[in-house]
Design brief:
Number of helices of chain A: 3
Radius of gyration of chain A: 12 Å
Radius of gyration of chain B: 33 Å
Protein name (chain B): Chemotaxis protein CheA
Pfam families (chain B): CheW, H-kinase_dim, HATPase_c, Hpt
CATH topology of chain A: Transcription Regulator spoIIAA
Function (chain B): Involved in the transmission of sensory signals from the chemoreceptors to the flagellar motors. CheA is autophosphorylated; it can transfer its phosphate group to either CheB or CheY.
Keywords (chain B): ATP-binding, Chemotaxis, Kinase, Nucleotide-binding, Phosphoprotein, Transferase, Two-component regulatory system
CATH architecture of the largest domain in chain B: 2-Layer Sandwich
Number of domains of chain A: 1
Number of helices of chain B: 21
Shape of chain A: globular
Oligomer: heterodimer
Largest sheet of chain B: 6 strands, mixed
Strand order of the largest sheet of chain A: 1-3-5-6
Strand content of chain B: 15-25%
Number of strands of chain B: 22
CATH class of chain A: Alpha Beta
Distance between the termini of chain B: 64 Å
CATH architecture of chain A: 2-Layer Sandwich
CATH class of the largest domain in chain B: Alpha Beta
Shape of chain B: flat
Strand content of chain A: 15-25%
Organism (chain B): Edaphosphingomonas laterariae
Strand order of the largest sheet of chain B: 14-18-19-17-16-15
Helix content of chain A: 40-55%
């Protein structure tokens, strides 16, 4: 399982930095865990990256989870109407 | 266009909105309003709210939300425009102005709690008003997006929103209309400019919007993913009671970056042909099978629900203006100035060659002057931008002093150079404060004096003889000359036995540290205001005068140059040097007879000008020149007027010419030179210094004694 930390500010710049790493992770044909507890701000670019990664993982037949999503991340995804489309893995005792 | 540039446009539109709102509120206050006036105010506030939301200015957005709620009730006839409501609206406007100033970095966010509470109280119906349909419960964000986890704290979105940002307030009287269906898809390059479409969603949610669906079908896999691409689209519903314009306002600043559809059940399309780039709309929900589609591009010609009072004029103006970076404008003006100088040099050289009668040279001269006038006019702005601050100042002064003041503004369209506009604000503020604080009497005193209990302050501007004349007039008690003179003597400003004219006594109020306030107030009684006024006006190349009539009021008159880039000057020679004396200082010039000049001591003379003896000051001596005339009867004497020292006489060798010259800053191009206000380039290519008459006279006259003491 490849673990990748999402950045605190998931703006376009952060997304640009993460895309190559995620591509490599998908091609490595191993599971991916995106650690999302430190995400403080995220906009459309960041949400799209998560959706794209999820879609790529499905296409590649590998597992991808977004672990311990922060409130900021969950709020943004809810606002964008895509929370149900993403593979959130909540912390213990936390409701999805 | 960058996000900063778009934000800059928003700030400018805020200014325009505030000006429009204030004009409307002033009309309301004067009882000269109609329904359209209130609509205009509403739209201005609403527009600011829309932009505030788009750019994430949460405090401003929240305040405008409650402000517009009250205005909406007012325009809907559910509130009567009574005096106390008028006061609240004016206070709300002032707070709104402070909010706008705060987001522009001019101060911190205002404490709006009190006014906000008043607006909320009115909006929630605590004030008596016709019974209305019970408002629905505020739309909880948790209900906004079915199908998603709703336990999230949306207020924390993007880490930049404050608690309560999504508070919808207490919606008033909501008619039962079909909800709006809003479909939006940011353009593929929408993120390039730093745009954040999620903020649009937040705005729609703040209007009561509910997420219906998110279109993720265009999300690519990572191998084709671009960080700056926009791949998502959304469909939301917004309550039908929300004004369509309010929804469109959300997208006001992203018109080019977003495809949008706004439609409502049961409403016939206003523009049947759909735009080519419009999104296909999903079939409406089963509960809305007959939904009529009303597809419009952003900011299309959809009829406004409310027609602003001056909409036709504003629309016409908007289509004929562009915003230009000030640096570019200054560069243009500077280049035109260089062209004027070059043209003058060319004319001089051709004249030296006996070719001065060439018609094309005359044409070039005319064209150059016209070009210069046109370039300068581009920098000109109406004084309205300065005058618009005054109503608030007067309102605050009324509240502080208990006086009643009717403000009259005139000539707001008079244009003045932008730099002068920017620097005249402070002097005008001082004058207005002075008029209200010292001039206008209390209502009781006015009644006792047989006057209207409401005083009058009139601020006017007009174009006269190549200068701008701004007057601040009041119908107050006028200057108490006896008291002014007594204070001046007490403070050593004039001699005990000085015999001053009424005009000279009036001018004592401009003396440094002079104040007639019985108690120092925080309004205008620090004794520095009027001195600062005079200094600031002089620094602009202007002059200030006062005329006062006891019991009837005072008039302050400011004469300002139209521009700081050029001036009309008299070209004079002193020794082998050439100088420019600004015409604004010159009263007359003459070659005196022996009997008109009196010798007062070594190198000191006075000139008898119709019975008044004025000191003769040698420019050559002051500037350290040799070879100049030292006998006044062999020189040319120029009588000049100064603010601080009254009239004086400058002695030069000869008058060479009188012309308009382009001012070049010594501070910018060289360094400050005492006695010189700048420089210019003459037609023969030589640099000529422009004399700073005020400083020159001040340097020559010893400052051992106060000026008026010397004149007594």
């Amino acid at each position: 399982m490849r673990r990748i930390n999402l950045l605190p500010v998931m703006d376009r710049e952060a997304v640009s930095l993460l895309v190559p790493e995620l591509r490599e992770a998908v091609q490595a044909d191993a599971g991916i865990a995106l650690l999302a507890d430190g995400v403080e701000q995220i906009g459309q670019a960041g949400i799209q990256l998560l959706l794209s990664a999820h879609r790529s993982a499905i296409a590649a037949g590998i597992d991808l989870t977004i672990a311990a999503p922060s409130d900021a991340l969950k709020n943004a995804c809810a606002l964008a109407g895509v929370a149900a489309s993403l593979p959130f893995a909540m912390a213990d005792g936390e409701a999805a | 266009m960058t996000n900063e540039e778009i934000q800059g446009i928003f700030f400018q539109e805020c200014d325009e909105g505030l000006a429009s709102a204030e004009a409307g509120l002033m009309a309301c206050r004067a009882g000269e309003h109609d329904g359209e006036t209130i609509n205009t105010v509403f739209r201005a506030v609403h527009s600011i709210k829309g932009g505030a939301g788009a750019f994430g200015f949460a405090a401003l957005q929240s305040f405008t939300h409650h402000f517009e709620t009250v205005l909406d009730l007012l325009r809907g006839g559910e509130l009567a425009l009574e005096a106390d409501l008028m006061t609240t609206l004016l206070r709300a406007f002032d707070v709104l102005s402070d909010h706008v100033a705060a987001i522009r970095g001019a101060g911190s966010a205002p404490d709006d709690a009190e006014v906000l509470a008043m607006l909320q109280a009115i909006g929630s119906g605590e004030r008596p008003r016709p019974a209305v349909q019970a408002p629905p419960e505020p739309l909880a964000v948790a209900e906004a997006a079915p199908g998603v986890d709703l336990s999230f704290d949306l207020d924390a979105l993007l880490g930049g929103l404050e608690a309560g940002d999504l508070d919808l307030g207490e919606p008033a009287a909501l008619p039962a209309t079909s909800p709006w269906r809003v479909t939006l898809r940011p353009a593929r390059g929408a993120l390039h400019n730093g745009g954040e479409p999620l903020l649009l969603l937040r705005e729609l949610v703040a209007l009561g919007g509910e997420m219906q669906s998110a279109d993720t079908s265009q999300i690519p896999t990572l191998d084709r993913f671009e960080a700056e691409g926009a791949y998502l689209g959304w469909t939301l519903t917004v309550p039908g009671h929300v004004n369509r314009a309010a929804i469109e306002e959300v997208f006001e600043f992203v018109a080019e970056d977003c495809e949008l559809r706004i439609e409502q059940d049961g409403v016939e399309p206003e523009e049947p042909p759909a735009p080519a780039n419009a999104l296909p709309v999903d079939p409406p929900p089963s509960s809305q099978p007959e939904a009529a589609t009303n597809v419009v591009p952003i900011k299309s010609a959809v009829p406004e629900p409310v027609k602003p009072v001056q909409a036709p004029v504003a629309a016409a103006t908007a289509g004929q203006t562009i915003r230009v970076d000030l640096d570019k404008l200054d560069r243009l003006v500077n280049l035109v100035g260089e062209l004027v100088i070059t043209q003058a040099m060319l004319a001089q050289q051709l004249q030296d060659c006996g070719q001065s009668a060439i018609q094309q040279l005359t044409d070039l001269d005319h064209l150059t002057r016209e070009l210069q006038d046109s370039a300068m006019s581009i920098r000109a702005q109406p004084v309205k931008s300065v005058f618009s601050r005054v109503p608030r100042i007067v309102r605050e002064l009324e509240a502080q002093t208990g006086k009643r003041v009717r403000l009259e503004l005139e000539g707001e369209a008079t244009e003045l150079d932008k730099t002068v506009i920017e620097r005249i604000g402070e002097p005008l503020t001082h004058l207005i404060r002075n008029s209200v604080d010292h001039g206008i009497e209390s209502p009781a005193d006015r009644i006792a004096a047989g006057k209207d209990p409401e005083g009058m302050v009139r601020l006017a501007a007009e174009h006269r003889s190549g200068r701008i004349i701004i007057t601040v007039e009041d119908d107050g008690k006028g200057i108490d000359r006896e008291r002014v003179l007594a204070l001046a003597v007490e403070r050593g400003i004039v001699a005990q036995d000085a015999r001053l004219t009424d005009e000279e006594i009036d001018n004592l109020i401009f003396a440094p540290g002079f104040s007639t306030a019985k108690a120092v107030s925080n309004i205008s009684g620090r004794g520095v205001g009027m001195d600062v006024v005079r200094q600031n006006v002089q620094a602009l190349g202007g002059r200030i005068a006062i005329a006062s009539t006891p019991g009837k009021g005072s008039v302050f008159t400011l004469a300002l140059p139209l521009t700081l880039a050029i001036l009309d000057g008299m070209i004079v020679s002193v020794g082998d040097q050439t100088y420019v004396i600004p015409l604004t200082h010159i009263i007359e010039s003459l070659r005196p007879s022996h009997g008109e000049v009196k010798r007062m001591g070594p190198g000191q003379h006075v000139l008898d000008v119709r019975g008044a003896y004025l000191p003769v000051l040698s420019v050559a001596d002051q500037l350290g020149l040799s070879g100049a005339a030292d006998d006044p009867t062999q020189a040319v004497l120029i009588v000049v007027e100064t603010e601080e020292f009254g009239q004086a006489v400058l002695m030069v060798d000869a008058i060479v010419d009188q012309r308009q010259v382009v001012i070049k800053s010594l501070e910018t191009n060289y360094k400050p030179v005492p006695g010189c206000a700048g420089a210019t380039i003459l037609g023969d290519g030589r640099v000529a210094l422009i004399l700073d008459v005020e400083t020159l006279v001040a340097l020559q006259i010893t400052a051992d004694e106060p000026p008026l003491l010397r004149r007594a």
